[in-house]
Design a protein that fits this description.
- The complex is a heterodimer of chains A (about 725) and B (about 55).
- Chain A is an alpha+beta fold and about 725 residues long.
- Chain A is about 50% helix and about 15% strand.
- In chain A, helix 13 runs antiparallel to helix 14 and helix 15 runs antiparallel to helix 26.
- The longest helix of chain A has about 35 residues.
- At the A-B interface, helix 4, strand 2, helix 6 and helix 7 of A face helix 1 and helix 2 of B.
């Protein structure tokens, strides 16, 4: 919480004077401020140097260090500096920057377990190399006392190394056995333990075959798989934490004497008066107490037309205030808000989602019992045939080692690591471990409209219908406002080379529009009802000059970058593309025609979207849902796989498997292709591993498998599998 | 064969030294930003001395 409580120097002077914050600041007496910023767009050596130089050149900054792997910069600065002071510095250097709540990023914990795994891997690697060297001497024909000595030295290295390195497997196997289940770790632990025990026994008897090298190599390869798996997960987890940390929930509460104080959203109670500035999002459900404005509800309902807001209107958390400052009285906070009520819908969808079993789990289910039965049969068979316990035990150990899922343990992690690395480079963050496999199965893609296929920013369509004179007036009026339609109008008019007309008394009436005096006449740009405009079927701003008739500037939602390409590529790949939106029929139909989408549905309620997807799933389709709004969360959960853009609401991002980090939709078809390719690689890897087993297991059962053959089979299968996975990159 | 009495300890010590060095790099946070380090080496900025942490 320290990051939140830190006195704000620039954002809100009143807050730093707030007694609570001051008392806290004095109590802690920080000697330096640690600020973490997310830099989604950095990618090269020059970027790092530019950002670091820009920050270190600023007064108050002690050190700045960019982490390119995490795409973050951590800054140590004087205690009075805040993230709000740092962001403009980075933006001036040309990079996007967002504040990260440093406390929400508990990266240290995952980091520690990753480091522990790496340490075990290093010890196993060291022991493996030494034991292998000694084993080579034995394989090349060392005999008698020399062989015994080599075996003993191997034992001295391998036993403690295995005890340390293979601990995670032993612990997992023990927990599974205690719960009376079988998992992959049970045969692994059994194989390692049995190999060590029989080898020690053989060594005391000056036997010929010892499997110390096999036991430690096995540990090494399996740990490699474990480590890869851990890294993929932790990168995804830390990036997901980062997205959550981006939304620092703060609100401005009005105190009794009418002053604003900045508080955490969780501290708000029913009845509080909250000030929401233009551009701000409603933190809670409430009723407007003061002010007029317009509200953008697109994230909740998918509607693009802004709604007029006046005192008495009910607002829901998540709506965006567009023009004037509003004061709202909270009627529901925290868990009771409509935002959270949507979570119930998600829970329903979740229970309906068929539980997906990953390929690795399917393989393990067949594999674990099979291995035990095979090795037990070999043991019993040889015991009956030869009557020698030592021989039988040796052969059982050899069977376990040969069948040990070295390649299986690597087959999936190596492929997922390669695939998610490749997708991350293209701006896709895989949040769920099985998401890639599920993505590979999809045959239908459902898009949401507002905020997903469209960028959520309006674009002027009928500039040519106006006279130059009208455009000049409109530009003069629009420049005085921060309303999204005005901004879009300004950009379009400027691009057409229009100069603003000279206007006097420019005044923005929140919730209505802008008015001014032009050559003695009143001119207005704003809502239809305020300018005596007519009805429009799409988003419009009306211009009225004097007492003349109002004319409409029509807007459509600008397409998101790459939307056309993504839809076309998906259709070319033979997928059925569907558009489901909560917006009006006219707007949806127009967009569907523009993108050449045959199947669409407008005015869909959140439950309609989820219901449609459930129906399609029941008909045997595998649906990929791409959406960003709160109204999409249930649908995202109900779908077989789901993607949401980084601009989506937190709830939608949580519900989806994959987050699109960039602004463009173009990587989606690529993601589907990569997912298909990687699933094919996983299957190939399973086939390779199976073939090695088919060849080596009969040898082991027949008692012909020497430690040399075991080492060769194990290493070559593991290496082939890893190389095959790397072909994805 | 007596040479083994020297060679085996030497190989173990060398291997152990490698392991100890790896542990040192791990503790010195050298695996926190592999991508950044691979790019940083291309910039001429820290040719004279490494960037202080």
């Amino acid at each position: 919480m320290t990051a939140v409580m830190r006195p704000q120097a620039s954002a809100c002077p009143a807050c730093s004077a707030a007694p609570a914050a001051e008392a806290l600041a004095q109590a802690v007496e920080p000697t330096e401020a640690h600020i973490v910023l997310s830099l989604p767009t950095i990618h090269c050596a020059a970027c790092m140097a530019t950002v670091e130089r820009a920050l270190e050149g600023a007064p108050g900054v002690r050190t700045a260090r960019v982490n390119l792997t995490m795409k973050r910069v951590s800054i140590d600065a004087d205690p009075e500096q805040t993230a709000a002071d740092m962001i403009p510095l980075v933006e001036a250097a040309g990079y996007e920057a967002h504040e990260l709540d440093a406390t929400a990023l508990n990266a240290t914990q995952t980091d520690r377990s990753g480091r522990e795994l790496l340490m075990r891997l290093a010890v196993a690697g060291f022991a493996m190399m030494n034991v292998m060297l000694l084993s080579v001497a034995v394989w090349s024909g060392a005999e008698g006392q020399t062989r015994d000595m080599f075996h003993w030295i191997s034992a001295i290295i391998a036993v403690p190394a295995v005890a340390f390195s293979a601990k995670p497997f032993f612990v997992n196997a023990w927990t599974a056995l205690k719960a009376q289940r079988l998992n992959m770790d049970v045969p692994i632990s059994l194989a390692i333990a049995l190999a060590l025990v029989t080898s020690l026994w053989e060594t005391t008897l000056s036997g010929e075959h010892a499997y110390f090298d096999a036991a430690i190599t096995l540990t090494f390869f399996l740990l490699t798989g474990r480590y890869l798996d851990h890294r993929t997960r932790s990168v995804a987890r830390s990036a997901a934490e980062e997205l959550a940390a981006l939304e620092v929930p703060r609100a401005f509460r009005l105190t009794r004497d009418g002053e604003e104080e900045q508080v955490s959203v969780s501290d708000l109670v029913v009845g509080d008066l909250i000030r929401v500035r233009p551009g701000g999002r409603m933190p809670v459900d409430g009723e407007i107490a003061e002010g007029t404005s317009e509200l953008d509800r697109s994230l909740l309902t998918g509607e693009t037309l802004p709604v007029y807001a006046e005192p008495g209107l009910q607002v829901s958390a998540g709506e965006v205030n567009l023009t004037g400052p509003l004061t709202i009285r909270a009627t529901a906070v925290g868990r009771d808000t409509s935002l959270h009520r949507m979570a119930d819908l998600v829970a329903v969808a979740e229970s309906g989602r068929s539980r997906y079993t990953s390929l690795a789990d399917k393989a393990a289910k067949l594999y674990a019992p099979g291995v035990h039965i095979l090795s037990a049969l070999a043991f019993v068979g040889w015991l009956i045939y030869s009557g020698d316990l030592r021989v039988a035990l040796n052969i059982a150990a050899a069977v376990l080692i040969i069948t040990c899922p070295c390649a299986l343990g690597l087959a999936v992690p190596a492929v997922t690591t390669a695939a998610s690395g490749r997708l991350f480079k293209r701006g896709l963050l895989i949040k769920d471990a099985t998401a890639i496999e599920r993505m590979a199965q999809i045959d239908t893609v459902v898009f949401d409209k507002t905020g997903t296929l469209t960028a959520g920013t309006p674009e002027l369509t009928n500039l040519g219908d106006f006279t130059r004179c009208d455009l000049e007036i409109a530009l003069g009026l629009a420049e005085g406002s921060a309303h999204p339609l005005s901004i879009s109008l300004t950009t379009a008019a400027r691009a057409a080379g229009i100069k603003p007309a000279t206007l006097t008394d420019i005044q923005e009436i929140p919730g209505h529009g802008t008015q001014a005096i032009w050559k003695g006449q009143e001119v207005r740009l704003g809502r239809a009802s305020w300018t005596n405009g007519g009805q429009a079927t799409q988003t419009a701003a009306w211009l009225r000059v004097g007492s003349g008739e109002a004319q409409a500037f029509l807007f459509t939602d600008r397409l998101r970058d790459g939307a056309e390409e993504a839809v076309k590529a998906l259709q070319d790949d033979g997928m059925k593309v569907i558009l489901l939106s909560g917006d009006t029929t006219h707007a949806v139909e127009e967009l569907a025609e523009r993108l050449n989408i045959q199947h669409w549905m407008a005015e869909a309620l959140p439950q309609d979207k989820a219901g449609r997807i459930a129906d399609m799933t029941a008909d045997g389709a595998h649906v990929l849902m791409v959406g960003d709004g709160l109204n999409d969360t249930a649908a995202l959960t109900a779908a077989h796989a789901s993607i949401s853009p980084a601009s989506a609401l937190d709830a939608a991002r949580v519900a989806s498997d994959i987050v699109l980090l960039g602004k463009s939709l173009e990587p989606i078809p690529e993601a589907v292709r990569t997912a298909r390719k990687s699933t094919r690689r996983i299957r190939e890897n399973f086939t390779i591993a199976t073939w090695y087993n088919i060849i080596a297991v009969p040898l082991a059962i027949a008692g012909l498998c020497s430690p040399l053959i075991a080492a060769l089979a194990m290493s070559s299968s593991s290496i082939t599998v890893s190389l095959n996975a790397l072909r994805l990159r | 064969m007596n040479v083994l009495a020297y060679l085996i300890p030497i190989s173990l010590i060398l291997g152990g030294a490698g392991l100890a060095f790896f542990v040192f790099t791990l503790r010195a946070n050298q695996y926190d930003d592999p991508e950044g380090n691979s790019q940083r080496i291309l910039s001429g900025e820290y040719d004279d001395h490494p960037k202080p942490d």
